[in-house]
Protein backbone atom coordinates (compact mmCIF):
# COMPACT_ATOMS: atom_id res chain seq x y z
CA UNK A 1 0.00 0.00 0.00
CA UNK A 2 2.91 2.32 0.62
CA UNK A 3 5.39 3.34 3.28
CA UNK A 4 5.89 6.33 5.53
CA UNK A 5 7.82 7.46 8.61
CA UNK A 6 4.79 9.48 9.72
CA UNK A 7 2.75 7.58 12.36
CA UNK A 8 -0.53 9.14 11.26
CA UNK A 9 0.20 8.26 7.64
CA UNK A 10 1.00 4.68 8.60
CA UNK A 11 -2.40 4.39 10.28
CA UNK A 12 -4.13 5.69 7.18
CA UNK A 13 -2.27 3.21 4.99
CA UNK A 14 -3.20 0.40 7.36
CA UNK A 15 -6.88 1.33 7.08
CA UNK A 16 -6.60 1.40 3.31
CA UNK A 17 -4.97 -2.02 3.31
CA UNK A 18 -7.76 -3.52 5.45
CA UNK A 19 -10.38 -2.09 3.10
CA UNK A 20 -8.57 -3.54 0.08
CA UNK A 21 -8.24 -6.90 1.80
CA UNK A 22 -11.94 -6.96 2.63
CA UNK A 23 -12.86 -6.17 -0.96
CA UNK A 24 -10.54 -8.86 -2.36
CA UNK A 25 -11.86 -11.57 -0.04
CA UNK A 26 -15.49 -10.50 -0.45
CA UNK A 27 -15.95 -9.56 3.21
CA UNK A 28 -18.42 -6.78 4.24
CA UNK A 29 -16.67 -3.39 4.48
CA UNK A 30 -19.39 -1.27 6.11
CA UNK A 31 -17.61 -1.02 9.45
CA UNK A 32 -14.34 -0.14 7.76
CA UNK A 33 -16.04 2.63 5.70
CA UNK A 34 -17.48 4.12 8.88
CA UNK A 35 -14.10 3.97 10.56
CA UNK A 36 -12.47 5.54 7.52
CA UNK A 37 -15.04 8.32 7.42
CA UNK A 38 -14.40 9.17 11.07
CA UNK A 39 -10.68 9.07 10.45
CA UNK A 40 -11.00 11.53 7.60
CA UNK A 41 -13.17 13.83 9.75
CA UNK A 42 -10.53 13.75 12.47
CA UNK A 43 -7.82 14.47 9.94
CA UNK A 44 -9.75 17.47 8.65
CA UNK A 45 -10.48 19.07 12.02
CA UNK A 46 -7.02 18.36 13.38
CA UNK A 47 -5.61 20.15 10.35
CA UNK A 48 -7.60 23.39 10.82
CA UNK A 49 -5.14 26.24 11.15
CA UNK A 50 -7.40 29.29 10.93
CA UNK A 51 -11.01 30.41 10.45
CA UNK A 52 -11.38 34.10 9.82
CA UNK A 53 -13.90 36.62 8.52
CA UNK A 54 -13.25 37.24 4.84
CA UNK A 55 -16.46 38.73 3.39
CA UNK A 56 -15.78 42.41 4.26
CA UNK A 57 -12.40 42.32 2.55
CA UNK A 58 -13.82 40.57 -0.55
CA UNK A 59 -16.60 43.14 -0.98
CA UNK A 60 -15.64 46.37 0.81
CA UNK A 61 -11.91 45.86 0.32
CA UNK A 62 -12.53 45.52 -3.41
CA UNK A 63 -14.42 48.83 -3.43
CA UNK A 64 -11.63 50.39 -1.33
CA UNK A 65 -9.21 49.50 -4.13
CA UNK A 66 -11.53 50.46 -7.01
CA UNK A 67 -12.11 53.93 -5.60
CA UNK A 68 -8.35 54.40 -5.34
CA UNK A 69 -7.76 54.34 -1.60
CA UNK A 70 -5.22 51.58 -2.24
CA UNK A 71 -2.87 54.46 -3.09
CA UNK A 72 -2.57 54.87 0.66
CA UNK A 73 0.06 52.23 1.36
CA UNK A 74 -0.98 51.59 4.91
CA UNK A 75 -2.65 48.37 6.04
CA UNK A 76 -3.73 49.86 9.35
CA UNK A 77 -5.69 52.61 7.60
CA UNK A 78 -7.42 49.97 5.46
CA UNK A 79 -8.31 47.85 8.51
CA UNK A 80 -9.73 50.83 10.41
CA UNK A 81 -11.85 52.02 7.47
CA UNK A 82 -13.37 48.61 6.71
CA UNK A 83 -13.94 47.94 10.41
CA UNK A 84 -15.80 51.27 10.65
CA UNK A 85 -18.23 49.95 8.03
CA UNK A 86 -18.65 46.47 9.50
CA UNK A 87 -18.24 46.95 13.23
CA UNK A 88 -18.26 50.65 14.17
CA UNK A 89 -17.07 50.74 17.78
CA UNK A 90 -14.33 52.39 19.85
CA UNK A 91 -10.70 51.93 18.85
CA UNK A 92 -10.18 49.60 21.83
CA UNK A 93 -13.05 47.36 20.75
CA UNK A 94 -11.85 47.57 17.16
CA UNK A 95 -8.56 45.92 18.14
CA UNK A 96 -10.57 43.14 19.78
CA UNK A 97 -12.70 42.76 16.62
CA UNK A 98 -9.65 42.59 14.35
CA UNK A 99 -8.04 39.92 16.53
CA UNK A 100 -11.12 37.71 17.00
CA UNK A 101 -12.52 37.88 13.49
CA UNK A 102 -9.57 38.73 11.25
CA UNK A 103 -6.67 37.18 13.12
CA UNK A 104 -4.90 40.56 13.15
CA UNK A 105 -3.07 41.55 16.32
CA UNK A 106 -2.82 45.32 16.77
CA UNK A 107 -2.12 46.99 20.08
CA UNK A 108 -4.55 49.84 20.82
CA UNK A 109 -1.62 52.12 21.71
CA UNK A 110 -0.30 51.61 18.19
CA UNK A 111 -3.65 52.84 16.84
CA UNK A 112 -3.53 55.93 19.05
CA UNK A 113 0.02 56.68 17.89
CA UNK A 114 -1.08 56.15 14.32
CA UNK A 115 -4.00 58.57 14.69
CA UNK A 116 -1.58 61.25 15.86
CA UNK A 117 0.17 61.21 12.49
CA UNK A 118 -2.86 60.37 10.34
CA UNK A 119 -4.56 63.75 10.83
CA UNK A 120 -2.15 65.62 8.57
CA UNK A 121 -0.81 62.71 6.54
CA UNK A 122 -3.90 61.30 4.89
CA UNK A 123 -6.69 63.90 5.01
CA UNK A 124 -5.80 65.74 1.78
CA UNK A 125 -5.05 62.53 -0.09
CA UNK A 126 -8.31 60.89 1.03
CA UNK A 127 -10.29 63.90 -0.24
CA UNK A 128 -8.37 64.00 -3.52
CA UNK A 129 -9.04 60.30 -4.14
CA UNK A 130 -12.72 60.73 -3.32
CA UNK A 131 -12.98 63.73 -5.65
CA UNK A 132 -11.20 61.97 -8.53
CA UNK A 133 -13.49 58.95 -8.27
CA UNK A 134 -16.60 61.14 -8.01
CA UNK A 135 -15.87 63.14 -11.16
CA UNK A 136 -15.25 59.86 -12.97
CA UNK A 137 -18.68 58.46 -12.13
CA UNK A 138 -20.31 61.87 -12.78
CA UNK A 139 -18.71 62.17 -16.23
CA UNK A 140 -15.94 64.61 -15.25
CA UNK A 141 -18.31 67.35 -14.15
CA UNK A 142 -18.73 69.03 -10.75
CA UNK A 143 -20.88 72.13 -11.25
CA UNK A 144 -23.22 71.92 -8.26
CA UNK A 145 -22.15 71.28 -4.67
CA UNK A 146 -24.24 70.88 -1.53
CA UNK A 147 -23.10 72.04 1.89
CA UNK A 148 -24.41 71.44 5.39
CA UNK A 149 -23.19 71.30 8.98
CA UNK A 150 -23.85 68.93 11.85
CA UNK A 151 -22.67 68.68 15.45
CA UNK A 152 -20.73 65.81 17.04
CA UNK A 153 -20.69 65.61 20.82
CA UNK A 154 -18.21 64.19 23.34
CA UNK A 155 -18.91 62.20 26.50
CA UNK A 156 -17.01 64.68 28.68
CA UNK A 157 -17.72 67.81 30.68
CA UNK A 158 -14.57 69.90 30.20
CA UNK A 159 -14.14 72.17 27.20
CA UNK A 160 -10.97 73.09 25.29
CA UNK A 161 -10.00 75.13 22.23
CA UNK A 162 -11.89 72.81 19.85
CA UNK A 163 -14.53 71.03 21.93
CA UNK A 164 -16.99 73.64 23.15
CA UNK A 165 -20.62 73.66 24.20
CA UNK A 166 -23.05 75.18 21.74
CA UNK A 167 -26.36 74.51 20.04
CA UNK A 168 -26.42 70.73 19.58
CA UNK A 169 -28.37 69.12 16.76
CA UNK A 170 -28.26 65.91 18.80
CA UNK A 171 -29.95 67.56 21.76
CA UNK A 172 -26.79 67.22 23.89
CA UNK A 173 -26.41 70.90 24.80
CA UNK A 174 -24.55 70.05 28.03
CA UNK A 175 -21.81 68.16 26.17
CA UNK A 176 -18.84 69.83 24.45
CA UNK A 177 -19.00 69.34 20.70
CA UNK A 178 -17.40 70.13 17.36
CA UNK A 179 -18.98 71.22 14.09
CA UNK A 180 -18.52 69.06 11.00
CA UNK A 181 -18.99 70.81 7.65
CA UNK A 182 -19.50 68.44 4.71
CA UNK A 183 -19.49 69.19 0.99
CA UNK A 184 -21.08 66.63 -1.35
CA UNK A 185 -21.83 66.35 -5.05
CA UNK A 186 -25.03 65.55 -6.85
CA UNK A 187 -26.28 62.16 -5.59
CA UNK A 188 -24.54 62.72 -2.28
CA UNK A 189 -20.96 61.63 -3.02
CA UNK A 190 -18.59 63.17 -0.43
CA UNK A 191 -16.11 65.74 -1.75
CA UNK A 192 -14.60 67.62 1.20
CA UNK A 193 -15.02 68.22 4.90
CA UNK A 194 -13.70 70.37 7.72
CA UNK A 195 -14.16 70.52 11.47
CA UNK A 196 -14.72 73.67 13.53
CA UNK A 197 -15.05 74.76 17.15
CA UNK A 198 -18.27 73.64 18.79
CA UNK A 199 -19.53 77.15 19.52
CA UNK A 200 -18.90 78.58 16.04
CA UNK A 201 -21.87 79.99 14.13
CA UNK A 202 -22.51 77.40 11.43
CA UNK A 203 -23.09 80.07 8.80
CA UNK A 204 -19.42 81.07 9.12
CA UNK A 205 -18.20 77.58 8.21
CA UNK A 206 -19.52 77.43 4.64
CA UNK A 207 -17.24 79.83 2.75
CA UNK A 208 -13.91 78.47 4.10
CA UNK A 209 -14.80 74.93 3.00
CA UNK A 210 -16.09 75.96 -0.42
CA UNK A 211 -13.21 78.35 -1.09
CA UNK A 212 -10.61 75.71 -0.23
CA UNK A 213 -12.39 73.14 -2.40
CA UNK A 214 -12.62 75.50 -5.37
CA UNK A 215 -8.97 76.51 -5.09
CA UNK A 216 -7.70 72.93 -4.70
CA UNK A 217 -9.35 71.70 -7.89
CA UNK A 218 -9.15 75.01 -9.80
CA UNK A 219 -12.87 75.13 -10.47
CA UNK A 220 -14.10 78.24 -12.28
CA UNK A 221 -17.83 78.01 -11.65
CA UNK A 222 -19.82 76.44 -8.84
CA UNK A 223 -23.46 76.54 -7.85
CA UNK A 224 -23.67 76.27 -4.06
CA UNK A 225 -26.81 74.76 -2.49
CA UNK A 226 -27.31 75.18 1.26
CA UNK A 227 -30.03 75.15 3.89
CA UNK A 228 -31.74 78.20 5.39
CA UNK A 229 -29.83 77.67 8.64
CA UNK A 230 -26.67 78.85 6.83
CA UNK A 231 -28.38 81.91 5.40
CA UNK A 232 -27.22 85.34 6.52
CA UNK A 233 -26.85 88.67 4.76
CA UNK A 234 -23.08 88.44 5.22
CA UNK A 235 -22.97 84.98 3.64
CA UNK A 236 -25.01 86.10 0.65
CA UNK A 237 -22.90 89.22 0.20
CA UNK A 238 -19.68 87.19 0.34
CA UNK A 239 -21.00 84.58 -2.10
CA UNK A 240 -21.90 87.35 -4.53
CA UNK A 241 -18.58 89.17 -4.09
CA UNK A 242 -16.72 85.97 -4.95
CA UNK A 243 -19.02 85.43 -7.96
CA UNK A 244 -20.60 82.21 -6.76
CA UNK A 245 -24.01 81.16 -7.95
CA UNK A 246 -26.16 79.85 -5.15
CA UNK A 247 -29.48 78.32 -4.15
CA UNK A 248 -30.29 78.87 -0.50
CA UNK A 249 -33.27 78.01 1.63
CA UNK A 250 -35.19 81.22 2.41
CA UNK A 251 -36.58 82.36 5.74
CA UNK A 252 -39.65 83.88 4.13
CA UNK A 253 -41.06 85.15 7.44
CA UNK A 254 -37.92 87.29 7.82
CA UNK A 255 -38.30 89.04 4.45
CA UNK A 256 -39.24 92.71 4.24
CA UNK A 257 -42.80 93.66 5.20
CA UNK A 258 -43.58 94.52 1.57
CA UNK A 259 -42.37 91.13 0.34
CA UNK A 260 -44.21 89.30 3.12
CA UNK A 261 -47.44 90.93 2.01
CA UNK A 262 -46.81 89.82 -1.58
CA UNK A 263 -46.16 86.27 -0.42
CA UNK A 264 -49.34 86.05 1.67
CA UNK A 265 -51.35 87.51 -1.22
CA UNK A 266 -50.37 84.59 -3.46
CA UNK A 267 -52.88 81.87 -4.20
CA UNK A 268 -50.82 78.84 -5.18
CA UNK A 269 -52.32 75.43 -5.79
CA UNK A 270 -50.72 72.15 -4.77
CA UNK A 271 -47.36 71.73 -6.54
CA UNK A 272 -47.40 75.22 -8.04
CA UNK A 273 -44.54 77.71 -7.78
CA UNK A 274 -43.82 81.32 -8.62
CA UNK A 275 -41.05 83.86 -8.17
CA UNK A 276 -40.70 87.36 -6.73
CA UNK A 277 -37.92 89.92 -7.09
CA UNK A 278 -35.99 90.80 -3.94
CA UNK A 279 -34.40 94.16 -3.21
CA UNK A 280 -30.91 92.63 -3.55
CA UNK A 281 -31.63 91.74 -7.21
CA UNK A 282 -31.93 88.08 -6.33
CA UNK A 283 -34.94 85.89 -7.00
CA UNK A 284 -37.23 84.44 -4.36
CA UNK A 285 -38.80 81.21 -5.61
CA UNK A 286 -41.91 80.10 -3.74
CA UNK A 287 -43.67 76.76 -3.88
CA UNK A 288 -46.76 75.36 -2.16
CA UNK A 289 -47.46 71.78 -1.11
CA UNK A 290 -50.65 70.48 0.50
CA UNK A 291 -48.74 67.68 2.22
CA UNK A 292 -46.28 70.22 3.64
CA UNK A 293 -49.21 72.36 4.83
CA UNK A 294 -50.72 69.39 6.67
CA UNK A 295 -47.36 68.55 8.21
CA UNK A 296 -46.86 72.17 9.34
CA UNK A 297 -50.29 72.20 10.97
CA UNK A 298 -49.77 68.87 12.72
CA UNK A 299 -46.34 69.89 14.04
CA UNK A 300 -47.66 73.21 15.31
CA UNK A 301 -50.58 71.53 17.11
CA UNK A 302 -48.20 69.04 18.68
CA UNK A 303 -45.98 71.89 19.86
CA UNK A 304 -48.94 73.82 21.27
CA UNK A 305 -50.26 70.76 23.10
CA UNK A 306 -46.87 70.31 24.73
CA UNK A 307 -46.75 73.97 25.80
CA UNK A 308 -50.29 73.80 27.23
CA UNK A 309 -49.42 70.72 29.28
CA UNK A 310 -46.27 72.42 30.58
CA UNK A 311 -48.20 75.55 31.57
CA UNK A 312 -50.80 73.50 33.47
CA UNK A 313 -48.02 71.73 35.36
CA UNK A 314 -46.25 75.03 36.09
CA UNK A 315 -43.05 73.92 34.39
CA UNK A 316 -42.48 77.11 32.39
CA UNK A 317 -40.70 80.23 33.61
CA UNK A 318 -39.21 83.43 32.20
CA UNK A 319 -36.21 81.51 30.87
CA UNK A 320 -38.54 79.69 28.47
CA UNK A 321 -39.50 82.94 26.73
CA UNK A 322 -37.31 82.60 23.63
CA UNK A 323 -37.52 81.80 19.94
CA UNK A 324 -36.55 78.15 20.20
CA UNK A 325 -39.11 75.99 18.46
CA UNK A 326 -42.67 76.63 19.58
CA UNK A 327 -41.55 78.66 22.61
CA UNK A 328 -42.00 81.64 20.30
CA UNK A 329 -45.73 81.42 21.07
CA UNK A 330 -45.16 82.10 24.77
CA UNK A 331 -45.67 85.56 26.30
CA UNK A 332 -45.63 87.17 29.73
CA UNK A 333 -48.84 88.56 31.18
CA UNK A 334 -48.09 91.05 33.93
CA UNK A 335 -45.00 90.08 35.83
CA UNK A 336 -45.61 86.46 36.69
CA UNK A 337 -48.06 84.74 34.35
CA UNK A 338 -46.94 82.89 31.24
CA UNK A 339 -49.54 82.20 28.57
CA UNK A 340 -49.74 81.21 24.92
CA UNK A 341 -50.12 83.87 22.25
CA UNK A 342 -52.79 82.19 20.12
CA UNK A 343 -52.97 85.18 17.74
CA UNK A 344 -49.32 84.64 16.85
CA UNK A 345 -50.07 80.97 16.32
CA UNK A 346 -52.98 81.87 14.03
CA UNK A 347 -50.75 84.21 12.01
CA UNK A 348 -48.20 81.44 11.57
CA UNK A 349 -50.87 79.18 10.04
CA UNK A 350 -51.05 81.54 7.05
CA UNK A 351 -47.58 80.33 6.02
CA UNK A 352 -48.40 76.61 6.10
CA UNK A 353 -47.29 74.75 2.99
CA UNK A 354 -45.09 77.57 1.65
CA UNK A 355 -41.40 77.04 1.00
CA UNK A 356 -38.95 79.66 -0.28
CA UNK A 357 -35.63 79.54 -2.12
CA UNK A 358 -33.25 82.44 -2.79
CA UNK A 359 -31.06 82.25 -5.88
CA UNK A 360 -28.96 84.40 -8.17
CA UNK A 361 -28.83 81.72 -10.90
CA UNK A 362 -30.67 81.86 -14.21
CA UNK A 363 -32.09 78.39 -13.63
CA UNK A 364 -35.82 77.93 -14.08
CA UNK A 365 -38.09 77.88 -11.02
CA UNK A 366 -38.57 74.12 -11.30
CA UNK A 367 -34.84 73.50 -11.67
CA UNK A 368 -34.06 75.61 -8.59
CA UNK A 369 -36.56 73.61 -6.52
CA UNK A 370 -35.23 70.34 -7.94
CA UNK A 371 -31.63 71.18 -7.07
CA UNK A 372 -32.52 72.30 -3.56
CA UNK A 373 -34.49 69.07 -3.17
CA UNK A 374 -31.22 67.17 -3.55
CA UNK A 375 -30.05 68.68 -0.27
CA UNK A 376 -31.72 65.82 1.60
CA UNK A 377 -28.89 63.60 0.39
CA UNK A 378 -26.39 65.44 2.58
CA UNK A 379 -28.81 65.05 5.49
CA UNK A 380 -28.82 61.34 4.69
CA UNK A 381 -25.02 61.39 4.74
CA UNK A 382 -25.06 62.76 8.28
CA UNK A 383 -27.71 60.24 9.31
CA UNK A 384 -25.68 57.32 7.95
CA UNK A 385 -22.50 58.65 9.56
CA UNK A 386 -24.19 59.00 12.94
CA UNK A 387 -26.10 55.70 12.87
CA UNK A 388 -24.49 53.11 10.60
CA UNK A 389 -20.92 54.40 11.01
CA UNK A 390 -21.49 55.65 14.58
CA UNK A 391 -19.23 58.62 14.11
CA UNK A 392 -20.44 59.98 17.45
CA UNK A 393 -20.07 60.14 20.35
CA UNK A 394 -16.32 60.67 19.97
CA UNK A 395 -14.11 59.39 22.78
CA UNK A 396 -10.80 60.98 21.76
CA UNK A 397 -9.42 63.89 23.77
CA UNK A 398 -6.83 65.52 21.56
CA UNK A 399 -7.33 67.39 18.30
CA UNK A 400 -5.17 65.16 16.10
CA UNK A 401 -6.94 61.86 16.92
CA UNK A 402 -10.30 63.62 16.54
CA UNK A 403 -9.36 64.79 13.05
CA UNK A 404 -8.09 61.29 12.17
CA UNK A 405 -11.35 59.74 13.40
CA UNK A 406 -13.33 62.04 11.07
CA UNK A 407 -10.98 61.18 8.19
CA UNK A 408 -11.61 57.45 8.66
CA UNK A 409 -15.37 58.02 8.80
CA UNK A 410 -15.23 60.17 5.63
CA UNK A 411 -13.41 57.39 3.77
CA UNK A 412 -15.85 54.78 5.08
CA UNK A 413 -18.82 56.87 3.94
CA UNK A 414 -17.33 57.17 0.44
CA UNK A 415 -17.11 53.35 0.25
CA UNK A 416 -20.69 53.10 1.54
CA UNK A 417 -21.88 55.41 -1.26
CA UNK A 418 -19.99 53.41 -3.89
CA UNK A 419 -21.52 50.19 -2.53
CA UNK A 420 -24.94 51.84 -2.76
CA UNK A 421 -24.27 52.99 -6.34
CA UNK A 422 -23.11 49.60 -7.57
CA UNK A 423 -25.96 47.75 -5.85
CA UNK A 424 -28.45 50.10 -7.48
CA UNK A 425 -27.24 48.98 -10.92
CA UNK A 426 -26.59 45.32 -10.09
CA UNK A 427 -29.15 44.34 -7.45
CA UNK A 428 -31.56 47.24 -6.70
CA UNK A 429 -33.48 45.35 -4.01
CA UNK A 430 -30.34 44.76 -1.95
CA UNK A 431 -29.52 47.62 0.42
CA UNK A 432 -25.96 48.52 1.46
CA UNK A 433 -26.81 47.60 5.06
CA UNK A 434 -28.01 44.14 4.01
CA UNK A 435 -24.99 43.60 1.77
CA UNK A 436 -22.65 44.42 4.68
CA UNK A 437 -24.62 42.07 6.94
CA UNK A 438 -24.18 39.24 4.41
CA UNK A 439 -20.48 40.01 3.98
CA UNK A 440 -20.10 39.72 7.75
CA UNK A 441 -21.18 36.05 7.52
CA UNK A 442 -18.59 34.95 4.94
CA UNK A 443 -15.62 33.15 6.49
CA UNK A 444 -12.51 31.51 5.09
CA UNK A 445 -11.06 28.31 6.52
CA UNK A 446 -7.39 27.37 6.19
CA UNK A 447 -6.19 23.81 6.88
CA UNK A 448 -2.83 22.06 6.86
CA UNK A 449 -2.99 18.84 4.82
CA UNK A 450 -1.74 15.75 6.71
CA UNK A 451 0.12 14.22 3.79
CA UNK A 452 2.01 17.02 2.06
CA UNK A 453 1.90 19.43 5.01
CA UNK A 454 0.73 22.27 2.75
CA UNK A 455 -1.94 24.86 3.50
CA UNK A 456 -5.24 25.00 1.63
CA UNK A 457 -7.93 27.68 2.01
CA UNK A 458 -11.62 27.62 1.10
CA UNK A 459 -14.51 30.04 1.56
CA UNK A 460 -17.40 28.76 3.66
CA UNK A 461 -20.51 29.57 1.62
CA UNK A 462 -23.44 27.59 3.06
CA UNK A 463 -26.21 29.72 1.55
CA UNK A 464 -27.19 31.23 -1.78
CA UNK A 465 -27.21 34.90 -0.71
CA UNK A 466 -23.51 34.73 0.16
CA UNK A 467 -22.68 33.22 -3.23
CA UNK A 468 -24.82 35.80 -5.03
CA UNK A 469 -23.17 38.71 -3.21
CA UNK A 470 -19.67 37.56 -4.13
CA UNK A 471 -20.72 37.07 -7.76
CA UNK A 472 -22.09 40.63 -7.85
CA UNK A 473 -18.65 42.00 -6.99
CA UNK A 474 -16.61 39.48 -8.92
CA UNK A 475 -15.10 37.99 -5.79
Query: What structural class should be given to the helix and strand makeup?
Result: alpha+beta
Average residue pLDDT: 84
**What overall form do the CA principal axes indicate?**
elongated
Helix fraction? 40-55%
**Biggest sheet record:** 8 strands, mixed
Tally of discrete structural domains = 3
Order of helices and strands: HHEHHHHHEEEHEHEHEEHEEHEHHHHEEH
Strand order of the largest sheet: 4-3-2-5-6-11-8-7
CA-to-CA gap between the ends? 41 Å
Count, helices:
17
The total strand number stands at 13
Radius of gyration: 31 Å
> Per DSSP, what share of the residues sits in E-state strands of 2 or more residues?
15-25%
- As residue ranges, the low-confidence spans are none
Can you describe what's shown?
This protein has 475 residues and is α+β, with helices and mostly antiparallel strands. The chain folds into three domains: 1-46, no CATH class; 56-227 and 375-434, no CATH class; 292-349, no CATH class. Helices cover 48% and strands 17% of the residues. The chain has 17 helices and 13 strands. The chain has helices at residues 7-25, 30-46, 55-67, 75-86, 91-102, 108-121, 123-137, 206-216, 233-241, 257-264, 290-312, 342-349, 365-373, 376-386, 399-426, 432-439, 464-472, and strands at 48-53, 144-153, 177-184, 190-197, 223-226, 245-250, 273-277, 283-288, 330-333, 337-340, 354-359, 443-448, 455-460. The strands form three sheets. The protein has an eight-stranded mixed β-sheet, sandwiched between helices. Strand 9 and strand 10 (337-340) form a beta hairpin. Helix 1 (7-25) packs antiparallel against helix 2 (30-46), helix 3 (55-67) crosses helix 15 (399-426) and helix 6 crosses helix 15 (399-426). The longest helix is centred in the last third of the chain and has 28 residues, at 399-426. The mean pLDDT is 84.
